[in-house]
Specification:
The chain is mainly alpha-helical. Helix content is about 70%, strand content about 5%. The chain folds into two domains: about 120 residues, no CATH class; about 50 residues, Helix Hairpins. It is built from six helices and two strands, in the order ααααβαβα. It has a two-stranded antiparallel sheet. Helix 2 runs antiparallel to helix 3. The longest helix has about 30 residues. It is elongated and about 95 Å long. It is found in: Endoplasmic reticulum membrane. It comes from Caenorhabditis angaria. This is Guided entry of tail-anchored proteins factor 1.
């Protein structure tokens, strides 16, 4: 038998965090990406803000003018408004769009968090929680020793290993489902 991984607070925390990543990775990624988007949000260009204010004022003036009674003045303001709208479109086209930046942030966040989760999963792969008779879950014993696919020989031959990750994943998943059902039942 190989030497077993000693249980320490660091290992227990690593197992719990890796299982939590596996259960709620979508929620974690969304929260971190939203936080990063607020940090890296660019302020609007002052020229764009100024043009938007001018357009807003011109629209107010156009609403006050009657197109039938003051034909020349109305269409003069209308041409000014069209010119300002064109300038605004040109300025906004030159600026990098917010959507592409948000997609880049979300993609990078997803990659970094998933890589971190994989590294953590690799770290906890050798941690065995306990051993159970191997005929209980046969032929699916490999599922209860995940992420150590082939096992790490910490149990005698007639026993199967239950990894710390599998135990923590099951506990967190069941706890989360129970909590959400209980919480939703109270809301109704």
């Amino acid at each position: 038998m190989e030497e077993t991984v000693k249980i320490s607070i660091l290992n227990v925390v690593a197992v719990i965090i890796s299982a939590y990543f596996a259960v709620d990775s979508a929620r974690i990624i969304s929260a971190v990406a939203t936080f990063l988007k607020t940090i890296f949000k660019e302020k609007e260009d002052p020229a764009i803000t100024l043009l938007k204010n001018k357009i807003k004022n011109l629209k107010k003036e156009l609403n006050d003018i009657s197109p039938t009674n003051q034909f020349a003045a109305y269409f003069k303001k209308d041409r000014e408004l069209n010119k300002l709208n064109d300038e605004l479109e040109q300025l906004q086209a030159t600026k990098r769009t917010e959507t592409t930046k948000n997609l880049k942030i979300e993609g990078a966040t997803r990659v970094v968090i998933q890589l971190g989760a994989l590294v953590l999963l690799r770290y906890v792969s050798g941690i065995t929680a306990f051993c159970i008779p191997d005929n209980i879950f046969w032929p699916f014993n490999f599922l209860i020793r995940f992420p150590a696919i082939f096992g790490n020989d910490t149990c005698p031959g007639e026993f199967a290993e239950v990894s710390g990750f599998a135990l923590a994943f099951l506990a967190i998943n069941l706890g989360s489902r129970f909590y959400h059902r209980l919480f939703k039942a109270k809301r109704v």
